[in-house]
UniProtKB/TrEMBL annotation:
It comes from Mesorhizobium shangrilense. Residues 78-424 form the Solute-binding protein family domain. PANTHER family: D,D-DIPEPTIDE-BINDING PERIPLASMIC PROTEIN DDPA-RELATED, PERIPLASMIC BINDING COMPONENT OF ABC TRANSPORTER. InterPro entries: Peptide/Ni-bd, SBP_5, SBP_5_dom, TAT_signal. The keyword Signal applies. This is ABC transporter substrate-binding protein.
């Protein structure tokens, strides 16, 4: 079972020797050179451990250097990769996998089935610090026969193989990692991916060099420099000055302005990321009336229209139309007057408001801070007084893992595999380290769904959970994001619906 990797990545052999054409009014990019202004720093080079491993925004960096077990095409469909075949036996007690042959690591050593087994065993070992360890531990007792691998199912997980395309689902180099250790790997990481790490300055930039032996074909750009530019205005300046040829996640009004300029173009499609407000089960949020009022008071259509210039899609659950458990019948009305009545029943009013803190990033996603400001204004009118606290995204992960988020906290949730377990499940199941709301009633409804073998029953169960969450107002879903990418017309960018910005999908125009 094979695939034309160049077709998968969206570039042709003819593009490989082409010259990158820069903006006509500024300095041109050198032949084979590409510079990207990225919106987040890279805190760690291990894509399988620690909080950064579950940050959807940096997966594009990881996927440039490492291969996942099973890749996703730009439309999120699954494709053969390091694993060319995979599946369950009839009674779901064993898994089988076929490993691609002829692949090499960046140091020239051969990639083997032992690397796959070691990576899966390491991911399932709680001592390694994999944030998704509770998924990977569900299969063990792996056996290798040539390029075939079998494993015993300890506990059936219907999305085990889907995770191989998602967070922490990366194949790591067994011999190299054991030789250099964690510190050595941070200093000189290697993978099997389309690009090799040439230089890395923390909080500054990453320099990548094309992997000439990549199993899917050498990427079009020989050298890629990724600047870590966390300020949105600075990313705008990068692309407008020509210092960078590609950038992303800028305010939508700047996107519209920039793509109208000579020499610039863009793409802005709905991606699998959603914007949401986590509620934490403490303080005023323990009051159902306050939660329901907080949800009803927010005019999501207005947020999308005014702040996001019509880009994006309002949502009422943690599912988007592309997700497997999306249910358009679940609606939460925008009703400020009803919100006032609910708050009044609990003794609150605009004159005597319920007081909470809401946390948010600023410039991490387009208009994130401004959106929270607008929500706070909507809340103020009905009787909720919220104080805004700004933090970096890394702080959010730290607080969420320790169950110390404020009563309300903005977040963008990525779900590239579109399964309800990886949206509603991990966001709302109390034992999950990625959840904020933790109550027994919800856990009792979600718990049985993790191992449900009947797919139709499983999806129906998740829809029922989404309906219950909406009724109880345990979370505030906001919208599905559209991701703005601006680029020089001399660069062709293929947008990946996961939101990952992949240099390997870019070619000279």
């Amino acid at each position: 079972m094979t695939i034309n990797r160049r077709e998968l990545l969206g570039y042709s052999a003819a593009a490989l020797g082409a010259t990158a054409i820069g903006l006509p009014r500024i300095a041109k990019a050198a032949a084979g050179e590409l510079t990207i202004a990225y919106n987040v720093n890279l805190p760690s080079w291990d894509p399988t451990t620690g909080p950064s491993a579950v940050n959807p925004t940096i997966q594009g960096l990881y996927q440039s250097v490492f291969d996942q077990f099973i890749p996703q095409k730009p439309d999120l469909s699954f494709a053969p990769g390091l694993l060319t075949e995979w599946g369950w036996n009839e009674d779901r007690t064993k898994i089988t996998m076929t490993v691609r042959e002829g692949v090499t690591w960046h140091d020239g050593s051969p990639f083997t089935p032992e690397d796959v087994v070691w990576s899966l065993q390491r991911a399932g070992d709680e001592k390694t610090g994999n944030p998704i360890q509770f998924v990977w531990k569900n299969v063990n007792n792996f056996k290798i026969d040539g390029n075939k691998i079998t494993g015993d199912v300890v506990q059936f997980d219907p999305v085990y193989f889907k995770w191989m395309s998602f967070l922490t689902g990366y194949v790591m180099p067994k011999a190299y990692y054991e030789k250099v250790g964690p510190e050595g790997f941070e200093k000189a990481p290697i993978g099997t991916g389309p690009y090799m790490v040439e230089k890395f300055e923390r909080n500054a930039f990453l320099r990548l060099k094309a992997n000439p032996h990549y199993w899917g074909g050498k990427p079009a750009f020989e050298n890629v420099t990724i600047k870590f530019v966390t300020d949105a205005a600075s990313r705008v300046a990068e692309i407008e000055s020509g210092s960078s040829q590609v950038t992303l996640e800028i305010p939508y009004e700047e996107y519209d302005r920039l793509i109208a300029k000579d020499g610039l173009a863009g793409t802005c499609k709905n991606v699998s990321d959603i914007g949401m407000i986590f509620f934490n089960n403490k303080d005023a949020m323990l009051d159902k009336n306050v939660r329901q009022a907080a949800v009803m008071a927010v005019d999501k259509q207005l947020l999308v229209k005014r702040l996001l210039r019509g880009y994006g899609q309002p949502i009422d659950t943690l599912e988007t139309p592309e997700y497997a458990a999306y249910d358009p019948s679940i609606k939460v009305e925008h009703n400020p007057e009803k919100a006032k009545e609910l708050l009044a029943a609990s003794g609150y009013s605009p004159e005597k408001p319920a007081k909470i803190t809401i946390q948010t990033t600023k410039g991490f996603k387009p208009k994130d801070y401004e959106m929270v400001q607008a929500i706070v204004g909507m809340w103020r009118k009905v009787g909720i007084e919220a104080t805004i606290e700004v933090y970096e995204i890394a702080k959010h992960y730290e607080l969420r893992a320790a169950h110390k988020l404020a009563p309300a906290a903005f977040y963008n949730w990525g779900n590239a595999i579109g399964d309800p377990t990886t949206s509603t499940g991990f966001a709302m199941f109390g034992p999950s380290p990625h959840s904020s709301w933790k109550t027994d009633d919800l856990d009792a409804k979600i718990g049985p769904l993790w191992g449900e073998k009947d797919e139709a029953k499983r999806i129906a169960g998740w829809k029922a959970v989404d309906k219950y969450i909406a009724e109880q107002a345990y979370v505030l879903p906001l919208m599905q994001f559209a991701q703005p990418i601006v680029h020089a017309k001399g660069v062709k960018v293929v947008q990946h619906i996961s939101g990952a910005l992949l240099p390997a999908l870019m070619t000279p125009a």
